[in-house]
Specification:
MnmM_MeTrfase; SAM-dependent_MTases_sf; 9 strands; seven-stranded mixed β-sheet; about 35% helix; two-stranded antiparallel sheet; 10 helices; about 270 residues
């Protein structure tokens, strides 16, 4: 009785092993009644234990930062836009860079969708198409590169040259070519509006159109306001429109996101 009480206080009772450890039976035929307690305790100390080893959880990759995390750390809205694309794009997708510029966004899209995807790029300037092609070749090995189609053409021809309802991401980065000597060559309001209208047809259900509008150069504010007007009129049954603006940085770009709602969503959710 005393032996059982002591073993119980220690968390163990002979014949009732712990679920995490298995102990050898505490029996000894040569033990006298008087020394039974001492013998059992000695055997308890010498008992061999078999401990279950739980599998080590597999290491998980850190989640990419979301928009709020990026903005709170002072990241640029260009980086925030890329974070949105990364959360939406899947391997093998189709993406459109509507304003290639120096190719930074084109490379990011190509890296994200991988070798089985397809990236379309648009720019009216030969220097931009050339710079984008060189950047793609220098940053992506041939076997890692998706299919790349670069058009030296106005992005208003996007639907004509890409097709309808197939791109997971359509990205605009309005304004002038970064690093260009002539900053008077900028995206124009009328062609930008036509391009946004085309993008509404090119993007697939569940995809996103991102528009970075710059207001610090001549004509930039008017272009932004015109784009904002047409996207504000989109049906909420099919589109979710948002705007991210840094109020204490009045010349910073403004990020507009247009999410095309999934056709498979029930009507009661889409309304």
């Amino acid at each position: 009785m005393i032996c059982k009480q002591l073993l119980t206080r220690g968390g163990l009772v002979a014949g009732a092993p712990s679920p995490r450890c298995t102990f050898k039976a505490l029996t000894h035929t040569s033990c006298s009644t008087r020394s039974n307690l001492r013998c059992n305790l000695n055997h308890l100390v010498a008992a061999t234990t078999t401990t279950d080893v739980l599998p080590t959880p597999a290491a998980t990759a850190p989640s990419p930062p979301n928009l709020q995390q990026l903005l709170s750390t002072g990241a640029r809205l260009t980086t925030a836009a890329q974070a949105v694309w990364a959360q939406v794009l899947q391997s093998g997708d189709i993406a459109v860079d509507a304003t290639c510029g120096n190719g930074h966004d084109t490379v990011f899209l190509a890296q994200t969708i991988g070798p089985n995807g397809h990236v379309y790029g648009f720019d009216i300037q030969d220097a931009a198409i050339s710079s984008t092609r060189k950047r793609l070749e220098s940053h992506l090995a041939a076997d890692c590169r998706p299919r790349i189609t670069l058009h030296q053409a106005c992005h208003s021809r996007m639907q004509e040259l890409c097709g309808s309802g197939l791109a997971r991401v359509v990205a605009f980065n309005l304004g002038y070519l970064p690093g260009a000597g002539d900053k008077t060559v900028v995206t124009a309001t009328q062609s930008t509006l036509a391009a946004v209208e085309a993008a509404l047809e090119v993007v697939m259900p569940g995809g996103v159109i991102s528009i970075l509008a710059y207001v610090g150069h001549p004509g930039g504010k008017e272009e932004y306001e015109a784009v904002r007007r047409i996207v504000s009129e989109l049906s909420p049954s099919y589109w979710v429109s948002s705007e991210t603006k840094l109020l204490n940085r009045p010349t910073a770009p403004i990020l507009i996101l247009l999410w095309r709602r999934d056709d498979d969503l029930p009507a009661r959710i889409r309304k």
